[in-house]
Write a structure and sequence with these properties.
By secondary structure, the chain is mostly helical. Helices cover about 70% and strands about 0% of the residues. Among the domains are: about 45 residues, no CATH class; about 90 residues, no CATH class.
Length: about 950
């Protein structure tokens, strides 16, 4: 019998069939997933391609999560890329540098190079400073070690940096690749070398190439072309030629690009003979010349102003098989003509370009605009700019800025501003160059306050100012004599980091020298050296010129010695300045020595040299030497300019050689008002000086056509010359004749005649001219009234002169030191020293410093009265005030004459000064005094007083 036992299987089966917790068949809520679970879930969905399911997962993107997924899926590049893209689209999250570095390694491993390059470029774009850029390398190296992938990405980074011109970072990658045992590819090296040369770092490119060679990287033809270009940019064309031969010996077949680089290097050095040799070498190698070859040759010849040769190359280009003559070749020739203001030739070539069916381009238009502006034909430049629309061309910033500069050069600043307004209307914002041009233009026409207002407008508009902006305004402030504001701006320039700019220092030193503040200029020069800013030839030349203008030629020669010690080349401009300084210091015996030294150094005199020599010898009354310098200038091929010829004419008038002066003036312009045509017969006499004048006249037949000297200037020269030589009647007759011809006299004309008439004692006619002058709407200035008062005093009408003096204020004029000296001298000669002293005190109250002429008149007055004590006191005052070394002889002589009681000699000295003094309306009083007293001892030894030289008008 079967026994029944309770079987527990049912309960166990039931238990077995119940769902168990450990099976996890029901998903847990997503928010409760642990970090490993979430990472696992994301990875699984990405591999399965279920990207949409990621939206159901509740998580926030973070650097840690993204890096973890990339690490986990490093062998699944597509999944990594998809997740990275998803992360990049999040509004509040951006992948870090580390994540980018991991991704590019993952993509490059499976040769997804396009994607790798794309994300490398994004990574480079994220680097906003040096630290971030260099950290990229460190993170890439870290990811490389973590993944143990190939180093391909490093090479791609090197190429990316090079192509973007980020040579600093490219070099960092290049150096560190070698340290890590990685060798860059040839393509990346070529990119780096090319970028360095393009950025002007040719020397670095040469060093990199040496490293490439040491790494065993075999160059190709592209490498050779790049390196030839690098050597040429360094100015090492000889080395470039050697390099070409080395490469050809190694079996490289170099192409036309390489040889074009060689030609470009020769052109840059101005060595067209070497360029021709390269051209011959190309023919020997069977390398066909292309349009770049010909265009470079045209460019080279244009730089040397060999335009016939340049046009020959253009004609060869037309005949060369396989070479198409294009707008650029024509454009280079047109630009060459424009740069030397040969606009007729430029237009001719432009017409030829249009006739052969080629079109104008922006480069050609800008060249023509620049040429017109340089030639003073600004209206034609503006018409061309307007006509550019006919060729479907739009003027750019350069077009407008060039036109602005053209108007500024002509002094038409209002039209320049109109061009700026036009720029704004067409949507081109004036840049800093445009503003700098406007400031310079305003300063050129002495509109300094307007320049300052424009400066403040630039600041208000947020224009990024550069050192040219600052230096242009600084130069303007110096020209207006505003030393305090110039000093303030200079301190601002230093504060803005331009303390190492030689250009900035040269500007301030030049300004101080022009203001005759040599002590301050020396201080700035010292500070320049302290700040580590290297002085150049311009710096030293500026200092030397400053000393020469003050007559301190010894100091100027010390500057020259410093330049020679520092191996700085001495320029012709420096020698011209020194020659001027020697003449000014009356050390004429050293002039020829300096000229000889200049020639030994291989420097040839230019037109400025000859102009300085001619002016100097004319001032010394050595017309024989002046004529000799003139003829030497003509032989050397220099055309005489209007300044040189005017100087000679003025000197002839001053020395009483009127017929010769008239003849030269007639050659300069149509000047036949009163010339005695029979006087030409007199030039045939044996007198050598007439012969020289006739020779000079013969040289002016052609060159004078280019003078464009206004007739008013010529007539004023003639009138002043006649007055200075004492021919007042001739001057008056000439003036009457000129008026009949429609001559429109100016202030200078009347001042010259009034001065001449007053000095000759014809005061009534001088006043008549004053009235006539006012009827013409010309306002007499203080120089005119000084001449009238001087005439009144000389004719004994001291009371009338005094009344005229008291009326000056009502005429809107202020008396100057010359005005006071006229009256003081007159009172002293009349024995009225009390009135003379009162006038001197009045001068002091009005802030007018007495000159040496003032003191001399008073000394003479008191000596005449026998008041030696007062004379000695005045002499002591002079000694304290006038410390110039040129006056030392004068002061000692006067002191001796006072002690001896020799009034006669003191009278001679004083009368000599007064004769010279009458030229004060033409030249500066201070300059006149220095000229007189530098030779005081020599003059006083003469029995009669000699009139000092008057400067040319």
């Amino acid at each position: 019998m079967l026994r029944c036992f309770p079987i527990p299987y049912s309960s166990r089966l039931h238990s077995h069939l119940r769902p168990q917790k450990s099976l996890h068949w029901k998903p847990r809520h997503e928010s409760k997933l642990t970090r490993p679970e979430l990472l696992d879930r994301i990875s699984r969905l990405l591999i399965l391609g279920r990207h949409h399911a990621l939206k159901n997962l509740n998580f926030d993107f973070s650097d840690n999560l993204l890096d973890s997924v990339l690490l986990k899926l490093k062998l699944h590049p597509t999944s990594c890329l998809n997740f990275f893209k998803l992360a990049s689209k999040q509004p509040n999250f951006r992948p870090s540098v580390k994540s980018y570095c991991k991704l590019v390694h993952i993509l490059s491993r499976v040769r997804m190079y396009n994607e790798t390059r794309s994300y490398l470029n994004e990574l480079i774009g994220l680097c906003k400073n040096n630290y971030s850029s260099f950290i990229v390398w460190d993170e890439l190296v870290r990811a490389y070690k973590e993944f143990a992938f190939s180093p391909t990405v490093f090479d791609m980074l090197l190429k990316a940096y090079a192509e973007k011109g980020m040579t600093k970072y490219a070099l960092h990658v290049f150096d560190n690749m070698g340290k890590c045992g990685f060798v860059p590819s040839l393509r990346s090296c070529n990119s780096l070398l090319s970028s360095l040369v393009r950025k002007g770092q040719s020397y670095t490119a040469v060093l990199v190439y040496d490293q490439v060679d040491r790494l065993g990287i075999v160059p190709d033809v592209f490498t050779c072309s790049i390196m030839v270009n690098a050597y040429c940019k360094e100015g090492r064309v000889g080395r470039a030629m050697e390099f070409v031969k080395e490469m050809e010996n190694l079996g490289y077949e170099l192409n036309v690009v390489t040889y074009n680089s060689l030609i470009d290097g020769c052109v840059s050095l101005g060595d067209m003979e070497q360029a021709k040799k390269v051209l011959i070498l190309m023919g020997e190698r069977g390398i066909l010349r292309n349009k770049v070859t010909f265009t470079l040759l045209i460019k080279g010849y244009c730089r040397q102003r060999k335009f016939e040769e340049a046009e020959k190359v253009l004609r060869e280009m037309e005949k060369e098989e396989g070479v198409v003559l294009d707008e650029y070749a024509y454009g280079v020739l047109i630009d060459g003509y424009c740069r030397v203001s040969k606009m007729d030739d430029a237009i001719r070539v432009r017409d030829e370009l249009l006739n052969v069916g080629l079109k104008m381009n922006l480069f050609i238009c800008n060249s023509l605009i620049n040429g017109y502006c340089k030639n003073g034909r600004v209206c034609e430049a503006e018409r061309l700019l307007t006509a550019m629309g006919n060729w479907d061309l739009k003027p750019d910033s350069y077009s407008y800025s060039t036109l602005v500069d053209g108007y500024c050069r002509e002094g038409l600043t209002s039209k320049a501003f109109n061009v700026c307004n036009l720029m704004l209307q067409v949507g081109i914002e004036p840049n800093v160059v445009t503003y700098n041009t406007l400031i310079k233009g305003l300063c050129r026409v002495s509109a300094f306050e307007d320049a300052l207002n424009l400066w403040h407008l630039m600041l208000k508009r947020g224009v990024s100012l550069n050192e040219v902006s600052y230096c242009t305004l600084l130069d303007g402030l110096f020209k207006m004599g505003d030393f305090p504001r110039a000093l303030s701006l200079w301190n601002d320039i230093l504060a803005r980091g331009f303390g190492r700019s030689t250009y900035a220092f040269n500007t301030v030193i030049n300004g101080l020298c022009k203001m005759k503040k040599m002590a301050e200029a020396e201080e700035i020069f010292s500070r320049m050296k302290d700040l580590g800013c290297k002085a150049d030839a311009i710096t030293y030349r500026t200092l030397s010129d400053g000393y020469c203008r003050l007559g301190k030629v010894e100091e100027a020669f010390k500057v020259k010695e410093i330049m020679e010690k520092e191996a700085i080349s001495l320029s012709i401009e420096l020698y011209n300045s020194l020659i001027y300084g020697l003449f000014k210091s009356r050390k004429t015996s050293e002039v020829m020595v300096l000229l000889s030294e200049m020639c030994i150094k291989g420097l040839s005199p230019n037109v400025v040299t000859y102009g300085t020599l001619i002016a100097g010898w004319c001032d010394e009354d050595r017309l024989d030497k002046a004529f000799s310098a003139y003829f030497d200038m003509i032989e050397k091929g220099f055309a005489p300019n209007v300044i040189i010829c005017s100087k000679i004419v003025s000197s002839l008038y001053r020395l009483g050689r009127i017929d010769e002066a008239n003849m030269l003036l007639q050659k300069m312009v149509d000047f036949d008002v009163f010339l005695d045509h029979g006087s030409f017969d007199r030039f045939q006499k044996a007198d050598g000086r007439y012969v020289d004048s006739q020779k000079i006249a013969d040289t002016l037949d052609e060159s004078a056509k280019s003078f464009s000297l206004p007739n008013r200037v010529v007539y004023n020269i003639a009138l002043a010359g006649l007055c200075k030589s004492g021919k007042i009647d001739d001057a008056r007759n000439l003036f009457s004749g000129l008026l009949l011809r429609g001559f429109n006299p100016d202030n200078f004309t009347y001042c010259t005649l009034i001065h001449g008439l007053s000095a000759s004692g014809n005061v009534n006619e001088a006043f008549f001219l004053r009235d006539e002058m006012m009827k013409r709407g010309l306002v007499p200035n203080i120089v005119t009234y000084n001449a009238l008062m001087n005439g009144l005093c000389k004719s004994g009408n001291l009371d009338r002169a005094w009344r005229l003096f008291n009326k000056l204020h009502s005429k809107g004029l202020n008396a100057n030191v010359i005005t006071y000296n006229i009256l003081i001298d007159a009172y002293c000669k009349n024995g009225n020293t009390r009135e003379a002293l009162d006038l001197r005190n009045k001068m002091l109250k009005e802030g007018i410093s007495p000159s040496i002429v003032t003191c001399s008149a008073l000394i003479y007055g008191f000596c005449k009265q026998g008041d030696v004590e007062k004379s000695i006191k005045l002499l002591d005052e002079m000694t304290e005030v006038f410390v110039d070394q040129n006056l030392a002889t004068f002061l000692k002589l006067v002191e001796g004459y006072i002690k001896q009681g020799d009034v006669k000699k003191i009278s001679k000295l004083h009368n000599m000064m007064q004769v010279t003094y009458h030229s004060a309306s033409v030249i500066s009083h201070k300059q006149m005094e220095l000229d007189v007293f530098s030779n005081a001892k020599k003059i006083l030894d003469l029995d009669s007083c000699i009139m000092s030289q008057a400067v040319s008008c």
